[in-house]
Model the fold of this input.
Amino acid sequence: MSDPIEETAMSIKRLKVQGARNVAIAAIKAIQELAKETEAKDRNGFFTELLEAQEILFSSRETEPLMRNAVRWITNLVEKSDREKVEELAEIVFSASQQFHETLEGSKEKIAEIGARRIKNDSVVFTHCHSSTVTHLLRRAKLEGRSFEVICTESRPVFQGRMTVKEMLALDVKTTLIVDSATRFFVNKADLVLVGADAITSEGNVINKIGTSMIALAAHEARAPFYVVTELLKFDPTTMYGSFEKIEERSTDEIWKGPPRDLIIRNPAFDVTRRDFIHGIICEEGIISPHSIIEVINRRYPWVLE
Ligand code: RUB
Done:
């Protein structure tokens, strides 16, 4: 298998590329690279390469339906095409990748436009981990002249919250970093909570960085509205047919290198927030109820349900 796929899969696994949207974009670019460098002789050879690449990318992180939807969309277009020449099939990969990327960019802008309206002057926004979709929304609110402050968890074990606070400081937003366990203490001060998503299930539940569901519970008790900021394409169609979203369990080294013998350490990367705790999903179709997810997906991206 060609290097761009292995290299990208490794960067994703090691969190050099982080966050669902960046993971999907990196996977699309790797597939494009594969199409550019392919030495396949015929249609079958090229398609086999694509399927092998798909498998490697999918196994780099389990809880990433946006990446799976993106790669599957591209490979499906190749499969459905009647072209025989490898160059023509490679061209389909290029244009499909480009189109998917543009769709993602368009969604990001639309989400920011809609979500920024929820940031009132002098409000306090609580967030968790690092979501490029959330930080883009906050950037937009700032550029529109809104004044607000941000409280962000550090997001153990690998501290993605530090990326968020650096971005906020660069925007000149008043920013506070807290340990994850201080959530209940600080959520009291929040006017709203904004978190990203890695996956949305058919029931409207949302999977995001470990700790998100605890924040949702705390926000519920503190009566702070809890919003999920996400592209609809993070919907996982397999959940419609009974599959549970797999929760990636990462290396225990992230928590404690050289721990005492016989100690059990668990390190799930994500958890599930039930729809009942979600005020709304801020997505490219507007602010929707998690209950309406299938209807909205069917309207906007019917191919995801095929
Ligand atoms: C990142 C995380 C983010 C979502 C959404 O986890 O949980 O909230 O991926 O991010 P990790 P985005 O650091 O383990 O990838 O909005 O950028 O898609």
User: Anything to note?
Assistant: The mean pLDDT is 97.
